[in-house]
């Protein structure tokens, strides 16, 4: 097991190194002068030269790349020229919004998808299966930003039960903060739940045709016990894979939802940094998101071994 985890950790470190090179050099070759974009067309040559010096644009590319990598290793992601603040401080301010939003969305998605997938698999070809998978297909097809606007109209404008946007901060209390995240979390969770429900159904159908399931039923085990104890555990490998991918998406892909609900999260920070050409912020946030994907994949690999003992033996 230690060798298995060491191998996965090594792959993750290589992934981070390759991703850092791709992120840095792709942003490096983008057209335009970052100093000119930040200061505007009316900036004097002296001001542009001073800004380029502050941003380190006069140094060779490799020097800047290795300096950036070395800084991240000690927790220094650089300094934002738009916000005049360390990038790590900006990330810390925004991640307390995006991370709870992603966790709540994943919990909602899982709580909806797994029972629906099991229900559909247990009633394959019947009315319950057709209806539940039809609803799931609609959920996959509907864009989450359109669904977000619909939620705002119903629950914020019409019923006036939840806020339509903004975030009061955790200093205002846990409930006001959670209340502001309910609608964004639902808007993110339901399309993901539709995908996860379809994957759960497919995995369950494959498992339900195995010999040990027929043996368990022949022994007279209750139907619910067979589904939840025997079938679900052996069908969890593809489900865990999709859940890991969804968490990474929910953490990194919330730009539209955070702008719809005016949430000060990582997605909105990246959007603002791109429009303002604050490349050091873009690079820092993207590397943080890549690291989160690597960590999530490592956790999913560990969960594989927990769910399936055969993987522990092979490892």
TrEMBL record:
InterPro entries named in the record: BPD_transp_1_N, MetI-like, MetI-like_sf
Alphabetical UniProt keywords: Cell membrane, Membrane, Transmembrane, Transmembrane helix, Transport
Record membrane topology: Multi-pass membrane protein
SUPFAM superfamilies (alphabetical): MetI-like
Membrane-crossing residue ranges in chain numbering: 9-30, 99-122, 134-158, 178-197, 231-257, 285-307
Keyword Zinc attributed: no
Source taxonomy: Bacteria, Pseudomonadati, Pseudomonadota, Alphaproteobacteria, Hyphomicrobiales
CDD domains: TM_PBP2
GO molecular function: dipeptide transmembrane transporter activity
Organism: Neoaquamicrobium microcysteis
GO cellular component annotations of the record: plasma membrane
Keyword Cell inner membrane in record: no
Localization, UniProt: Cell membrane
Stated family: Belongs to the binding-protein-dependent transport system permease family.
Protein name as catalogued: ABC transporter permease
Domain (ABC transmembrane type-1) ranges: 95-304
């Amino acid at each position: 097991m230690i060798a298995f985890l060491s191998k996965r950790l090594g792959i993750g470190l290589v992934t981070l190194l390759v991703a850092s090179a791709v992120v840095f050099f792709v942003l490096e070759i983008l057209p335009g002068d970052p100093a000119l974009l930040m200061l505007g067309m009316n900036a004097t040559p002296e001001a542009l030269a001073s800004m380029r010096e502050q941003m380190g644009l006069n140094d060779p590319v490799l020097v800047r790349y290795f300096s950036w990598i070395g800084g991240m290793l000690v927790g220094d992601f650089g300094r934002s020229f738009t916000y005049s603040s360390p990038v790590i401080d900006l990330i810390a301010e925004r991640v307390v919004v995006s991370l709870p939003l992603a966790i709540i969305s994943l919990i909602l998605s899982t709580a909806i998808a797994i029972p629906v997938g099991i229900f559909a698999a247990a009633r394959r070809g019947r009315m319950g299966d057709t209806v539940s998978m039809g609803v799931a297909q609609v959920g996959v097809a509907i864009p989450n930003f359109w669904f977000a606007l619909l939620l705002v109209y119903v629950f914020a404008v019409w019923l006036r039960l939840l806020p339509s946007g903004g975030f009061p901060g955790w200093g205002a209390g846990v409930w006001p903060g959670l209340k502001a995240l309910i609608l964004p979390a639902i808007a993110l969770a339901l399309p993901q739940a539709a995908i996860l429900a379809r994957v759960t159904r497919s995995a369950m159908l494959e498992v339900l045709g195995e010999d040990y399931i027929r043996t368990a039923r022949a022994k007279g085990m209750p139907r619910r016990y067979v589904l939840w104890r025997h079938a679900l555990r052996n069908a969890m490998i593809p489900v865990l894979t999709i859940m890991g991918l969804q968490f990474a998406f929910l953490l990194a892909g919330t730009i539209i939802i955070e702008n719809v609900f005016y949430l000060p999260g990582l997605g909105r920070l990246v959007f603002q940094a791109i429009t303002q050409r604050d490349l050091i912020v873009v690079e820092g946030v993207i590397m943080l998101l890549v690291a989160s994907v690597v960590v999530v994949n490592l956790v999913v690999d560990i969960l594989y071994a927990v769910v399936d003992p055969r993987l522990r033996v092979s490892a």
